[in-house]
Amino acid sequence: MHSSKETGKKLKRHVDELYNSRLKHFYSIEQFHFHTPPAKSFYRVHAPSKYDDDLSLFRKTVLLANRDKNMVTGLELGRAGLGLRVVKPVWYNYDYLGTVELGGNIENLLSTPANSTGVEYAVGIFIRSLKKIPILLSGSQ
Description:
The protein is of the alpha+beta class. About 40% of the residues lie in helices and about 30% in strands.
């Protein structure tokens, strides 16, 4: 995922239709995001006008996936809120390019068991966790 405009245009051409025609509607994927190491936003398919921002202060899944070049999954707080994230390394011709992420709102994750069992769930976040991410508290996105 070299930072050239040419690479960005090629990537956009290949993934926009996939996201808009399948991932978003059939699988409730809300975030489709490409990153360059160590944790810089390269292309947000779900929000193309937001890119090139540094995520290293609060996106540990992206940092770990880029550092170890392995898939990382988990619940994580990001610019879009708390979500279930899957971050996977991207290689091209043996060259490491960065990571790709699929993510969704935790509400979708919790609604299926709630609907089938009738049990309501709640998720809390310690305020000290939010204080580690000043940009999220300030409302700047």
